[in-house]
Automatic annotation (TrEMBL):
Residues 8-48 form the Ribbon-helix-helix protein CopG domain. The keyword Transcription regulation applies. SUPFAM superfamilies: ACT-like, Ribbon-helix-helix. Binds 1 nickel ion per subunit. Belongs to the transcriptional regulatory CopG/NikR family. It comes from the Bacteria. InterPro entries: Acetolactate_synth/TF_NikR_C, ACT-like_dom_sf, Arc_rbn_hlx_hlx, CopG, CopG/NikR_regulator, Ni_resp_reg_NikR, Ribbon_hlx_hlx, TF_NikR_Ni-bd_C. Its cofactor is Ni(2+). Transcriptional regulator. This is Putative nickel-responsive regulator. One of its GO terms (molecular function) is DNA-binding transcription factor activity. It comes from Methylocystis echinoides.
Amino acid sequence: MWSLAVQRVTVTIDDDLMSALDRHMEAGGHQNRSEAVRDLVRAGLLKEPKLDDGARVCVAALVYVYDHETRQLSKKLVHDHHSHTDMSISTLHVHLDAKSCLEVSLLKGRKSEVEHFASHVVGERGVRYGQLVVVPADAEAGDEADHPHPHP
């Protein structure tokens, strides 16, 4: 997806934004501003919706917090995941306090179907927070020579 060739560009940024970029660079452990800007641009472009990518296969993390005392909610969430075993890879369940649970569900499937599933889960009564992070399944992770073992 991303080329290894690079282009040099010049960008004009006001002082406040440059200070924020420098803080981001330091906090993120970037060696220079170019690395920081590249990562921010890449992250922004991955979030950008594309008209034709609903059929593209993606991997995603659905993070949500819910009230486990809400009637039948835990049962509904488990049922939702079991009804989508083709999409649901794994779910991490954490008890935050006496009433609240956090779940992180790893999903894989067509982007439109993953988004529909996530919207359904987050829309359940008793789910207080939800966010979906989507990454194209074909996003390049680097040279395959550095990663020789196969994945199913």
